[in-house]
């Protein structure tokens, strides 16, 4: 069973059951791979396009979760095939505590680690209310003056 003490590698998502608690990656291979991905992304998109890259990553996650859960309200899926197709657990729209860990959402589709290598995907239509464009309020262009908004 998962508990709050277990941390997951930011690249491959495997549980890191040993080592320092501030570790982000399970080993040097995952760290190097994450760095390569980041550098590749920065070279490809340039920094000013990073926002678009984040939105693309969230859309990809959403599409993969949608395909996995289908018409069901809830489903248990293997993480590995999602990961191979480009699922990236660093990109989500909201997160909330669940019984055993955290449930992350891309819009109304949530995922939660339930055991090593498996995710429970949940559909929560209430999450869509947050994305009503009216709930964001007016979009103001921030001031260029430091300390002013
Ligand atoms: Zn790893």
What do you see in this structure?
The protein has 149 residues and is of the alpha+beta class. It has one domain (7-136). The chain contains three helices and seven strands, in the order ββααβαββββ. It has helices at 28-45, 50-69, 79-84, and strands at residues 7-8, 15-16, 74-78, 94-97, 102-106, 109-115, 118-123. The strands form two sheets. The protein has a five-stranded antiparallel sheet with strand order 3-7-6-5-4. The protein is globular. The model has no long low-confidence stretch (mean pLDDT 84). The protein binds zinc ion. Zinc ion binds at residues 9, 11-12, 14, 25-26, 30.
What is the element layout, followed by pairings?
Elements: E1 7-8, E2 15-16, H1 28-45, H2 50-69, E3 74-78, H3 79-84, E4 94-97, E5 102-106, E6 109-115, E7 118-123
Antiparallel strand pairs: 1-2, 3-7, 4-5, 5-6, 6-7
Characteristics of this structure?
single chain, alpha+beta, 30% helix
What characterizes the major β-sheet?
Answer: 5 strands, antiparallel
Helix run count:
3
- Relative strand content: 15-25%
End-to-end gap: 45 Å
User: Can you list the strand order of the major beta sheet?
Assistant: 3-7-6-5-4
What's the order of the H and E elements? EEHHEHEEEE
In which range does the helix fraction lie? 25-40%
Task: State the low-pLDDT regions, or none.
Answer: none
The dominant shape is globular
Radius of gyration: 17 Å
Bound compounds, each kind once, are: zinc ion
Domain tally: 1
User: Structural class given helices, strands, pairing?
Assistant: alpha+beta
Number of strands: 7
Mean pLDDT: 84
């Amino acid at each position: 069973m998962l508990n709050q003490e277990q941390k997951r590698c930011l690249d491959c998502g495997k549980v890191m059951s040993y080592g320092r608690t501030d570790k982000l990656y399970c080993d040097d291979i995952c760290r190097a791979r994450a760095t390569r991905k980041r550098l590749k992304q920065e070279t490809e998109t340039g920094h000013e396009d990073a926002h678009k890259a984040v939105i693309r990553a969230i859309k990809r996650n959403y599409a993969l979760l949608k395909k996995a859960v289908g018409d069901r309200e809830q489903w248990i899926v293997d993480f590995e095939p999602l990961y191979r197709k480009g699922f990236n657990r660093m990109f989500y729209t909201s997160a909330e505590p669940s019984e055993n860990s955290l449930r992350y959402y891309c819009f109304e589709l949530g995922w939660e680690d339930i055991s090593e290598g498996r995710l429970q995907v949940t559909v929560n239509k209430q999450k869509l209310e947050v994305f009503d464009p009216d709930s964001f309020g007016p979009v103001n262009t921030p001031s260029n003056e430091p300390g002013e908004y």
